[in-house]
Design goal:
The structure is a homodimer of 333-residue chains.
Chain A: H1 4-11, H2 15-22, H3 30-43, H4 49-56, E1 61-66, H5 72-87, E2 91-96, H6 101-113, E3 118-121, H7 128-135, E4 141-144, E5 156-159, H8 161-174, E6 180-184, H9 190-205, E7 215-217, H10 222-235, E8 241-244, H11 247-260, E9 269-271, E10 288-290, H12 293-309, E11 318-320, E12 323-325
Parallel strand pairs in A: 1-2, 1-3, 3-4, 4-5, 5-11, 6-7, 6-8, 8-9
Antiparallel strand pairs in A: 10-12
Chain A binds a DNA duplex (16 and 16 nucleotides) through residues 3-5, 13-17, 19-20, 22-23, 27-29, 32, 47-48, 50-57.
Chain lengths: 333, 333
DNA sequence: CTGAAAGCGCTTACAG
DNA sequence: CTGAAAGCGCTTACAG
């Protein structure tokens, strides 16, 4: 590949001058600049971003560490992030961790080695080693869709998962439901815990007792929802409603109910969480809790951008409000 | 951030020695190495990948340029790519182009500036400027889910879209359908054209004439499918089947049919293309053409890796076979 | 307006 | 086994 030296040599001038032409420096003769630009084109020269980055101590790169880009939840967040960040000249590097702790650690090391300017992260589970890595990072970080861990002065952008779960439960209880089951995500997950707590606390707040037989935890897929629904239904004949901790689980539950011929919402009410696109499909029309996913991504991007530009900026965390989206899977009893 | 100089100074030794410890060079005393490693840990030192890249002329970075990471089609491809590439030590940088020609060009420039080692790309529409950019790139490229353009000696990994479309049509015609509509994607798209050709050619091959009123082109979303189905149905009372150029369009069509109370497959048969997850949902069970998406991503990754490692490697293009997945949206007439 | 020199943070022959 | 020096491709004071 051609370097700045090649184009300088070609014209018998110094690299400083070529550099000036490249960077639109005012101290350069129009004619010289024109000649340089021509040679650049002819030699197919492109400035080397590594060399530039080394000098400027800036790479214009932001890392986005998320559990699974194929999860529609995160791909929309990612789009929000990317949209605002490319607008201001950054390239975003995705780190797909598949919720694998080793991959999370690997991505953080890589981010540091590669001198990324900032990081937007959704770690799945925060153990001590990961926390230490964050503390040693020396790169601005914002947490996305989860709160920042204790002992780390990083802002976060999140939705109030606990409140969202409470809203779902209040809706069900408000409709007269008393026997409400819960299909949850794996316990070690941060937000699985919050949504579960919302379920339990709201039950208690209304003098209801969560029935351990009507609670299942441990998955996040449609297949899991199907299985969980079948298990719960068989053990709880008096159940009239289900709160699923995410939409995929809810859809799995709906599938099982449809296959069994149990009509929704006549015999069973279902509420999900996330408001994925698929939830609004004609056959599903799931009542669920919406999070402004794209907005969350955009906000995180804006914060990291500002943190990088203003070293003294004390970023505030942002809580987005969840919203109940009423569709056709609930009825009054 | 600490540099190699800092750790050298700390121990009163030269940077060369520190570098040797870092790179597991054999010519170094065990004791010295141990001391260096300790200081590295204490100073929280991480080698600077930019500096390394500058010297080695390698960044261990691969660009993946795709139209839309939130499109489940591409997110699965992306996962396949990432899986094999991270395994061999690369970081993959996504370029979400949203089918915007400017973004495609921007990403290619960026890739060159950043000295990416290789590129896997799915450009949406290949105009002259883009082609020229590819020709000037000087970076190994493999095309994914579309063929490489003429005038560029780059391999591709693709599925035979034309054949897939023919398979869908043969299935329908084999079931006795004669009046078959087509819901297509925007005409400028590369594969939209191929799938459309498959529709037209198969009709002709069976002595059938495609009816312009039963053909619609121009979208790729569920909303579009809904609208297209309504338009086609209103103008073609004798229609018994629809071939939709992708699953989202097919699902939109199914939605409209469901809303109108037109039973599928009793009154209307529908075939899609892509075999998205959502196509197998209990309420949809769409008959469609499957492409081995993840495998395609993996294969592209393997090819680019080998192209980078072996300069003389003459990569062969790979065609994956499409497959008809029969579910519940077609019947014999 | 232009060039020579130093430096960004590292690696790698070369000499000892 | 260790260090001094050159160099990767650029930018940026500084001098002229």
């Amino acid at each position: 590949m051609a370097t700045i030296k090649d184009v300088a040599k070609e014209l018998g001038i110094s690299v400083s001058t070529v550099s000036r032409a490249l960077n639109n420096h005012p101290d350069i003769k129009e004619q010289t600049k024109k000649e340089i630009l021509e040679v650049i084109k002819r030699l197919n020269y492109t400035p080397n971003a590594l060399a530039r980055g080394l000098i400027h101590k800036k790479t214009n790169t932001i890392g986005l560490m998320i559990p699974d880009i194929a999860d529609p939840f995160f791909s929309e967040i990612a789009n929000g992030v990317e949209e605002v960040l490319t607008e201001v000249g950054y390239q975003v590097v995705y780190g797909n961790t598949m919720r694998n702790p080793d991959k999370e650690k690997l991505f953080l090391s890589s981010a540091k080695e590669r001198q990324m300017d900032g990081l937007i992260v959704t770690p799945n589970f925060m153990d001590e080693k990961l926390l230490e890595q964050f503390q040693r990072l020396q790169i601005p970080v914002v947490f996305l869709r989860r709160r920042s861990p204790e002992g780390l002065a990083a802002p976060f952008v999140d939705v109030d998962h606990y409140k969202g779960a409470c809203m779902a439960m209040e809706h069900l209880i408000g409709l007269g439901h008393r026997h409400i089951g819960f299909i949850g995500m794996p316990e070690l997950s941060f937000l699985a815990e919050l949504r579960y707590q919302g379920y339990v606390d709201t039950m208690h707040a209304h003098g209801l007792t969560p029935n351990p037989n009507a609670i299942t935890r441990g998955g996040r897929t449609i297949a899991h929802g199907r299985e969980a629904m079948s298990r719960i239904c068989e053990q709880n004949k008096d159940l009239t409603a289900i709160f699923a901790a995410n939409d995929l689980l809810a859809i799995g539950a709906l599938e099982w109910l449809a296959i069994q011929g149990i009509p929704v919402p006549e015999k069973m009410s279902v509420v999900g969480f996330d408001n994925l696109e698929v939830a609004s499909l004609h056959w599903i029309k799931l009542t669920t809790i919406a999070q402004p996913r794209k907005q969350m991504g955009e906000e995180a991007a804006r914060i990291i951008d500002r943190m990088i530009r203003e070293e003294t900026y004390q970023a505030q965390s942002v809580f987005f409000e969840p919203e109940l989206i009423q569709r056709n899977t609930c009825r009054e009893v």
